[in-house]
Design brief:
227 residues, alpha/beta, Dihydrofolate Reductase, subunit A, 2 domains, ten-stranded mixed sheet, 5 helices, 10 strands, binds NADP nicotinamide-adenine-dinucleotide phosphate
Length: 227
């Protein structure tokens, strides 16, 4: 069993997701207020996005030998809503095991140093292993379901994490808050960063579920994935 997966993003009309030059005053609200209306047991982000929320200290975990056990760690803690991060090499540093009201789950590969696992256990941050060298995102979702009873997960970006779940065929719904702005920055991250260039992969088609005007001139569009 795996959770139902809803990817939620705020994007410009040209699909870009960094808001640095968009010029809106309270730029967090467009994402957060719509996200709060999606019923989910967890949100999940990529390492780059999570580093905007995690601790700012720089700790050196060295290259300690990886001969310690590689067993999933489910922290004993009261929260029932979770914030998961795809962090294959263990780069997020934590002062606490919470982001707002959500308990942190680190999604790792087995290559992380033992000292990093000690850091997570010391902070009572949960962690799961999603593969030896590379992540198996199917396995990751199954573990989130089995170990944390996560039935619906909201994937909140950025573009690389969205792109990897898209490419793996694991997204059930896409929720887009379309901002009335053309960004135009060549090379800036887009909603789905799945693959360089054109190969054999086919684009993912969506079916419209609903759309509504939100805020001033924004549109909130919800799609289901056509399989
Ligand atoms: N507009 C919006 O709604 C929105 C939402 C969220 C974020 N953002 C913005 O998006 C930007 C970040 O996006 P991003 O695409 O650069 O980064 P990201 O998706 O947040 O994180 C990418 C990193 O996550 C890890 N990762 C993701 N998928 C993986 C996989 N399948 N296997 C192994 N590792 C994987 C890798 O970490 P390692 O590099 O450690 O290997 C990768 O470099 C930020 O500027 C943020 O503010 C915008």
């Amino acid at each position: 069993m795996k959770p139902y997966v809803i990817c939620h993003m705020l994007g410009s009309v040209d699909g870009r997701i960094k808001q640095d030059i968009w010029g809106f005053d309270d730029h967090h609200k467009y994402f957060e207020e719509t996200a709060a209306k999606i019923d989910a047991d967890a949100w999940l982000v990529g390492r780059v996005t999570m580093q905007e929320f995690s601790g700012k200290k720089v700790l050196d975990f060295g290259d300690s030998r990886n001969d310690g056990p590689r067993e999933d760690f489910v922290a004993d803690q009261p929260a029932r809503v979770f914030a998961a991060v795809i962090d294959p090499s263990g780069k997020c540093v934590w002062d606490t095991n919470m982001v707002s009201t959500e308990h942190v789950i680190e999604v790792l590969t087995e290559k992380v140093p033992d000292a990093y696992l000690e850091h997570l256990r010391d902070r009572n941050v949960s962690y799961i292993f999603g593969g030896k060298e590379e992540l198996d995102l199917h396995l990751v979702l199954e573990k989130l379901y089995q170990l944390f009873h996560i039935k619906t997960v909201r994937i909140d970006g950025g573009g690389h994490v969205n792109g990897s779940f898209l490419k793996a065929g694991l997204i059930d719904e896409f929720s887009l808050v379309l901002a009335p702005v053309a960004d135009g920055t060549i090379g800036a991250p887009t909603v789905f960063e799945a693959e360089e260039g054109y190969g054999d992969r086919k684009a993912t088609r969506f079916k419209l579920k609903s759309f509504e005007p939100v805020f001033d001139d924004f549109l909130w569009i919800r799609y289901s994935v056509v399989r």
